[in-house]
């Protein structure tokens, strides 16, 4: 049976040698049992690693503060999404359902700029390239037509799409914040959430612009109506809860303005990039009749 002396803490020579070889090593100091309180608590001295543990806890908990808006880390968080999140938000934008708010069910307080940026960039190229192909196919049978790539349409499409995707949400967000100050609204969205909603609402125009290549005018207008109904429904269902407590004039005027601006974007792109050229028939020269020639000859003879 072990004696009380065997249960006492002892200092081993190997530990002493290790500490003498590396004086800066981290050590654990255990209080003397004779001086310990009656509760039997054992205290560990981890003061040297406290700073490192705090940094690790901040990293694991995601509570580490980002830099200012002029730093790269500030904007990096807006692109921190995976493929499944982007696909889920795209699916929610093309299938808007009543009672399912896009911000609450898909964005969930984590708006991103990755999806809206690439949707706008893809829409720019799809509209410009499809417009060039549409012009080429409509003029392909004309022997006097010579195809020339219209690269300036890419610039025009980029200016229109990106201005719409940023300027309209900015104006709408500012208006909603102003109306919220009048204590007529129960809630609202942040500027990034507004930009995110508008960016994903433009996705439906990408396949629509590709189908506009088909040189059938009534089909093009039908596709415009379908795309406007889908994307317009997403915007109305998302922003209606923020204005429904306002006055009747304000809430209906806001919703109508949102729909009209969205429709103008689609109609403007169709009219400019997919305009159907008007073919004017070339004038044909008819030879003079034989009777008219005979009369002119007889009139020219001297009597």
Describe the structure using short key phrases.
single chain, 303 residues, mainly alpha, 12 helices, 60% helix
Characterise this structure:
This protein is globular. The longest helix has 30 residues, at 152-181. It has helices at residues 13-21, 50-61, 72-76, 83-94, 102-107, 114-138, 152-181, 191-201, 205-211, 217-243, 248-273, 290-300. Helix content is 60%, strand content 0%. Mean pLDDT is 75; it is low at 33-65. It starts with 12 loop residues before the first helix and ends with a helix. Helix 6 (114-138) packs across helix 7. By secondary structure, the chain is mainly alpha-helical. It contains twelve helices and no strands.
Task: Produce the secondary structure layout.
Layout: H1 13-21, H2 50-61, H3 72-76, H4 83-94, H5 102-107, H6 114-138, H7 152-181, H8 191-201, H9 205-211, H10 217-243, H11 248-273, H12 290-300
Helix pairs in contact: 6-7, 6-8, 6-9, 7-8, 7-11, 10-11
Main β-sheet, in a few words?
none
Kindly name the structural category: mainly alpha
Number of strands: 0
Estimate the strand proportion: under 5%
Ends apart, CA distance between termini: 163 Å
Overall 3D form: globular
Q: Report low-confidence residues grouped into runs of 5 or more.
A: 33-65
The Cα radius of gyration reads 37 Å
Level of helix content? 55-70%
**Mean pLDDT, nearest integer?**
75
Q: How many DSSP helices?
A: 12
Order of helices and strands: HHHHHHHHHHHH
């Amino acid at each position: 049976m072990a004696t009380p002396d065997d249960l006492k803490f002892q200092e081993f020579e190997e530990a002493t040698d290790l500490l003498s070889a590396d004086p800066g090593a981290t050590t654990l100091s255990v209080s003397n049992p004779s001086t310990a309180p009656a509760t039997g608590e054992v205290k560990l001295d981890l003061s040297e690693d406290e700073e490192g543990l705090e940094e690790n806890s901040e990293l694991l908990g995601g509570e580490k503060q980002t830099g200012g808006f002029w730093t790269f880390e500030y904007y990096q968080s807006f692109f921190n999404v995976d493929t499944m999140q982007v696909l889920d938000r795209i699916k929610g934008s093309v299938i808007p359902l009543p009672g399912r708010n896009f911000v609450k069910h898909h964005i969930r307080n984590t708006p991103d700029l990755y999806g809206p940026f690439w949707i706008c960039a893809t829409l720019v190229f799809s509209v410009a390239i499809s417009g060039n192909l549409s012009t080429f196919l409509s003029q392909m049978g004309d022997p006097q037509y010579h195809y020339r790539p219209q690269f300036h349409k890419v610039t025009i499409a980029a200016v229109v799409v990106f201005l719409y995707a940023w300027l309209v949400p900015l104006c709408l967000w500012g208006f909603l914040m102003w109306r919220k100050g009048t204590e007529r609204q129960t809630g609202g969205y942040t500027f990034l959430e507004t930009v995110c909603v508008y960016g994903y609402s433009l996705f439906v125009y990408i396949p629509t612009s590709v189908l506009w290549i088909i040189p059938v005018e009534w089909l093009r207008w039908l596709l415009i109506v379908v795309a406007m109904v889908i994307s317009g429904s997403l915007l109305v269902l998302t922003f209606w809860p923020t204005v429904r407590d306002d006055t009747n004039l304000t809430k209906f005027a806001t919703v109508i303005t949102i729909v009209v601006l969205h429709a103008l974007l689609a109609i403007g792109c169709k009219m400019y990039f997919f305009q159907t050229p008007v073919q004017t028939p070339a004038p044909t020269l008819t030879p003079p009749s034989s009777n008219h020639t005979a009369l002119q000859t007889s009139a020219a003879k001297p009597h």
